Amino acid sequence: RFQQVQSMMCDLMEWRSQLLSGTLPKDELKELKQKVTSKIDYGNKILELDLIVRDEDGNILDPDKTSVISLFHAHEEATNKITERIKEEMSKDQPDYASYSRMSSSPTHSLYVFVRNFVCRIGEDAELFMSLYDPQKLTIISENYLVRWGSRGFPKEIDMLNNLKVVFTDLGNKDLSRDKIYLVCQIVRVGRMDLRDSNSKKYTQGLRRPFGVAGN
């Protein structure tokens, strides 16, 4: 039983890091949330804990706002899904902790990035796009992490100061075997067409202009 719960906890911790990264598209975020809730419900069942009923998005149903009949159908549907899941697990030739062994032999990796400061004299607002880049294949291998930086040298969302963090997830052995991986930051200036223009209403404002790029 310990090995069984250990395997599920490893999965949940990995999925939690992906959810907290904030980099997943909306459809993948919904799918991953359903996987997490399904795993939790299955774990509660084998540990003989209470069954939690949820809606289609994985949110817990409020008994004060849900009719008795709807709750009954939700309980029935949840019980059937968990029963089918238990049958599938029991039909496997390998024990439950085999999933943990597979994960260990073919692990996924994550890169944690903490943005402490951005030092570059631009004079206007900027957008920083950070991503992982393969210089051999000349391609970006991750989604962009966006930071909006103000002209006064602080994040546009001041409450995000000292809290600009991102986790690049789902990096496998194939990614680690690449010759090089760069963390690239693309800088986009947001403001006037030309920095030499006076700050007058007759000049166009809010234009996005490429300013620079850096890699490490």
UniProtKB/TrEMBL annotation:
Alphabetical list of InterPro entries matching this protein: DOCK, DOCK_N, DOCK_N_sub1
GO MF term set: guanyl-nucleotide exchange factor activity; small GTPase binding
Annotated ranges, domain Dedicator of cytokinesis N-terminal: 2-201
GO terms, biological process: cell migration; myoblast fusion; small GTPase-mediated signal transduction
GO CC terms: cytoplasm; plasma membrane
Protein name: DOCK2 protein
Designated gene of the protein: Dock2_1
